[in-house]
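Incident log, structure service

09:12 report received: a user says their structure output differs between two submissions of the same chain.
09:20 pulled the input from the user's history:
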Amino acid sequence: MAPRRRAAVLAAALLNVLPACSKSHDHGHEHAHEGEHAGAAEEEVPSLAITRWTERYELFVELPVPMSGKPVPYHAHVTRLSDFGAVTQGTFRVRFKTPASTAGEATQVGVKRPGIFVFEAPAPAAGTYSLEMSYEHEGQVDVFDCGRVTVADRPVAPGGEQAGGAITFLKESQWRIPFGTAWAQERLMAREIELAADVEPAAKDQLTVGAPTGGRFFHNPKLALAEGMQIKKGDVLGTIAPTVAGDDYSRLQSAVEEARLASEQTQREIARVEPLVKQGLLPERRLTDLRNELETQTARLKSAGGRLGRVDSPGGAGGLSIKSTIDGLISQVVVPNGEPVDAGAPLVRIGGTQHLWVRARFVAKPASLLVDPSPVALRLSSGERVPLDGLGA
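09:34 re-ran on a clean worker, output below:
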């Protein structure tokens, strides 16, 4: 990316608006004020063109240089800044003000054409005044400070034509098409290079869940593991049903049978001894020892049965639970449901969402294009642009 530079940016629609309706070019004026200047002198008259703004409206007004005692024709163009459309109603006022009072005032109610207030009013006595104009609509008044203006006591000689021609962009034309104006602002200018990239979890936020022992990996049916699934810390991803083959499997079955037989034998012995203890023929200690032995054998039987059940049961019910130790998204399900795995084999890969890496690979570029580069934004496959300034990238 090229070095950042600062430059003033001006909306193109604002260019040449001011000279567009200057009376010095009235022969090319599109709205020509048909019938509005009946009886006016044919000779060219020096004119004023003023553009001002409030928070809600833009004013462009043109008028000849005021002469004491003579009518001043006004052509005021009022534009809404909310949609840059022409106003269609309202009241327009002009005031020539001195520090102490108002020397002259004119009011026009309603527009002649959309956006344009056309009227005449006599100029005050010769002198210099503060020219104030206002637009009122629905009880709200917007005041435009149009600066200082001099009222002459004799005709003013027209000034010379400016060198070069102007490209006119009249208000009537602007109102018919989408346009807008904006204040000049300082903005960053930099060349952007768009590169294809992959987004992946940072290394410290990646987790590979492995098999603690050999067996078959059964997915948790309540989750239906799939890439992109949100996982929370402690969620059970599935179970490992250990596989035992040959003699090992037989040994598990034998252990269950031995524990079961020993437990049954002790229960029978307790049933035989208990009446003798009640009759006083045997000490009570003998019965207590037998009951303790039965509890031990019952625990051995439960344990042996559980080990055998984890191997025999379909779906891995009762197997070794496999849990996630981080919050994140499943990036890969390595082992399909029910597939056999070896001890230590990867089962599921999870990526955290707290820290992400953006990895881009591209053909070498000229060094001049990569001076002091910085990441600006990501453009997702949906077209959405994600600025990186606020993400601490």
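09:41 both user submissions now match this output. Likely a transient worker issue. Closing.
09:42 reviewer note: The CA atoms of residues 68 and 188 lie 51 Å apart. The longest helix spans residues 247-278.
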